[in-house]
Amino acid sequence: MFIHVLGSGAGGGFPQWNCNCENCKGVREGTIKATRRTQSSIAVSADGVDWILFNASPDIKKQLDDFPAIQPCRAVRDTAISAIVITDAQIDHVTGLLTLREHIAPWEIYTTEAVKQDLTTGFPVFNILGHFRGINHHEIATDQSVFTIPSAEGLEFTAVPLLSEAPPYSPHRGNTVPGDNIGMHIKDTRTGKSLFYAPGLGVAEDHVLDYMRDSDCILVDGTVWTDDEMSNEGISDKRASEMGHLDQSSDGGIMSILNAMEKPRKILIHINNTNPILNEASPQRAILNKAGIELAYDGLDIEL
Ligand code: MLT
Ligand code: MN
Ligand code: ZN
Q1: Interval 172-189: pLDDT, tens
Q2: CATH, residue 276
Q3: How many distinct structural domains can be found in the chain?
Q4: 39 Cα–ligand 1 center, Å
């Protein structure tokens, strides 16, 4: 399978438009060594021709412009995106659907029932698309059963229920239900290789660890280095854990979880602009490098 990282930043991207934290200011002014990042999204393909979009970020126009394979130019209106999978109803993962309204047919969209509820009530993007070509909604079960997508022959998808948080406008905010957040395990039945993708991971439950351990490559929540990072910068009074993100550096944090795993290639995605690892000269980045943990960047291609 082919994986293309369209965006590797968290909500707001890097730099965020109104942010003057050390990182945002530094990358804007060129005083730190760091790379700009758009908001998190990946595309996955079985054959390199048809692509499944995972999440649709507000930055999708730039992301598609920067990825020629997704525009094969076979007709006057065309795209290589054959289906869309949404892992949660957060703004940074769904707002790009509005940009995709000019599609010439209903979009094939896969979400859990919980995410569908959010996207037809608190943030009714699906209702809005109904005024254009509409959507064909396919429900993703939360019982870890394997499903397939017609345009991705040879790939097997499993939704992995995650404990994270529902968006502020969700009826489930503060009282999450299974399906508010899912990770995705994707297995290529031809190569036998698998990917685990989870841009928002609040708690690493045992079933999640099992999927991670078994995967050849993990693209996992890289939002913050420390739980209080955003409040430290005076940016937010919220801890990352309240927003459904597990930090990297604490005991039991993402790094210690990844360090205990032998098999997978380990890559962080959905990296918040406050995270010191974005500064390539930071001691925190050196710790990750030493641990063999990579940072996803926009445009990263992986073949499994
Ligand atoms: C999150 O990942 O917690 C959200 O995307 C935050 C946001 O709204 O930017
Ligand atoms: Mn997010
Ligand atoms: Zn910032």
Answers
A1: 999 999 999 999 999 999
A2: 3.60.15.10
A3: 1
A4: 10
